[in-house]
Protein: TetR family transcriptional regulator
Organism: Kocuria atrinae
Amino acid sequence: MKCAIEVLAESGYSGASLAEIARRAGISKSVVLYYFSGKDDLLSSVVFDVYGRAGQAIAEALSHETSPGEKIAAYVRTNLHFLEEHAAEIRAVVEIVSNARGADGTHSFVPQGEDPVLAHLEELLREGQGSGDFREFDAHYLAIIIRSAIDTASGRLVVDPSFYLGAYTRELLSVVELATGTHRTEDSS
Amino acid sequence: MKCAIEVLAESGYSGASLAEIARRAGISKSVVLYYFSGKDDLLSSVVFDVYGRAGQAIAEALSHETSPGEKIAAYVRTNLHFLEEHAAEIRAVVEIVSNARGADGTHSFVPQGEDPVLAHLEELLREGQGSGDFREFDAHYLAIIIRSAIDTASGRLVVDPSFYLGAYTRELLSVVELATGTHRTEDSS
Amino acid sequence: MKCAIEVLAESGYSGASLAEIARRAGISKSVVLYYFSGKDDLLSSVVFDVYGRAGQAIAEALSHETSPGEKIAAYVRTNLHFLEEHAAEIRAVVEIVSNARGADGTHSFVPQGEDPVLAHLEELLREGQGSGDFREFDAHYLAIIIRSAIDTASGRLVVDPSFYLGAYTRELLSVVELATGTHRTEDSS
Amino acid sequence: MKCAIEVLAESGYSGASLAEIARRAGISKSVVLYYFSGKDDLLSSVVFDVYGRAGQAIAEALSHETSPGEKIAAYVRTNLHFLEEHAAEIRAVVEIVSNARGADGTHSFVPQGEDPVLAHLEELLREGQGSGDFREFDAHYLAIIIRSAIDTASGRLVVDPSFYLGAYTRELLSVVELATGTHRTEDSS
DNA sequence: GATGAATGAGGCTTCATTCAT
DNA sequence: AATGAATGAAGCCTCATTCAT
């Protein structure tokens, strides 16, 4: 799986053939299929493994925060921090999620209706609105905007050598603060 | 090219084989290769064609605006409006840009250093800062955030039937306004 | 298809890989798949082609006969005569029919319920019974016996160099005559 | 071996991989190769085991009969009776015998020249002719006809749910009686 | 006695491309 | 201008077998 992640991150979805993955791992293609029932299984495993660890890290971080503003900030910070330390893994997952398709041609990993990841962020936003910490906005669409800013980062890391994740995190935090209106609330307190 | 765009939008990069494209166009594979020197040429043509028309639409829209705040707003509005009317084309370009790779394994259409599209938006932001209309922020990173919000929309249109581009545009405009600080400037005037 | 038949007849079902068939035809595997949509299609085509021609030959021969006894005799004679002139083709069809299986594991070409080939022979037998030419017997089971004697011949031709089809035909005709009781009818005339 | 027989009978020769056989037996592939030197050895063992027991049953049954007509009848009856009680085993053997081939491409289990099974039946027929019980016929070819009628039964059991072995046995016995002419002899006595 | 790990050969199929017409 | 024929590389996967434990 580690080698699969590397190849996916470096060579993209189409470049991640079993042959290439096996070559990188110094084993034969057959070994990969000995441990995974097929390529789909391998890719699924990568996705769920990374998703699982990322989700855990985020949940852990959020558990330390109480105010909605701090929760959102922790959410963004943890996401980008996880990305910093697991850049290739996130890159690999993005490649898989955006390219893997089933026999019917539909995306295999993109939820068609309700997206749990998005729904989670959306709820954090709504909580802030409920408590009066946040201004009025459409939580669904703002969640999409914030997620897109998070998801784009892994790509930037690859193509933009000058992309500094620390500064990006700071800028995004400030945008989120302004967008949610957290700032004003603190002012009025 | 029209059929290539349709197939790319519906079936993704891997599903867009010459055979499939030709089948949809009701012609033979050979015809495609008669008009384009190869698959790469076909994809390039699609990218440049769409990019060209999108760029033209944006340039035209910006020429009507004068203040930095209005320019940025027009930029966002025109981008999303173009997407609304050319959803498949944008989707196709995204598929190509994020997947096409040269023989060396590097992305074919993602500029490695300076990204002209990003640089353009970045400059609009800097102009607003220069004129005092915008607050202090890192123009490069904010540009990335805004672009990501724009680019994610084409994907949402595909998987999320409830995604309403009009509301999304409104929300994004409001975020951009807050993020650039355009609002406050107007307040103080 | 001719080469596929040859390989099937000589090397059996498992030996009849696309590679081997293509090698024998002096072409590349791809060419086979250019003319047939897949291996299944190739095998189907062989089966239906041979079946069609055999069925036509039999129908033609039966049309010249009137009495039930002569019809059955013509049926047997034509079947074995067709086999004599198209030994490899029959051998190939037998290999396919008895080995080809669908994804669910069931035979692809063996009719699960009503077997039209068997039903045809069965009806010939029943006609003879209806007209009083034949004795009492179970038409279904006798049809199975006669067909098995016909079908076994192609295998014999392969493994038994001393197998002489002319003599076999004569013996089988005599058995069929005795089994149907055609003989007695002639006695009573 | 029991599981190998089941798989062969249900899934056919191509479906009978070591993996599948081991899976059904609830053991690992390695165990199979620990007890048998290879797949060929496993299949050989199945063939000889079943052949041995079938031959024994037949020999035992024949030893109770004296007249040629009764011997032939017992031969047919015992063959089909054994099939009834060991359908899967016979089916498995048929699959192996008709498909297994050596490296040179020739059948592994089909005797190229003299077939002992056929020769045995042939001799029974000749004995009947020698004693004057049977009419004149070509013993070799009649033996082939009778064997084919016996061998086809295992296949019928699989594809034809309405195939009733008892009735088939009765019909075949009657055909054999007529074909050998046993009946007339008894009449004239 | 039993097994998990690993492998290389081979199977079917898809694909972008070349060539002659 | 258009196309059918042909190809070789590559992709995923199955299989019988070997080896060390």
About this structure: Chain B has one domain: 2-188. Chains B and C do not touch (no CB pair under 8 Å). Confidence is low (pLDDT under 50) at residues 183-189 of chain B.
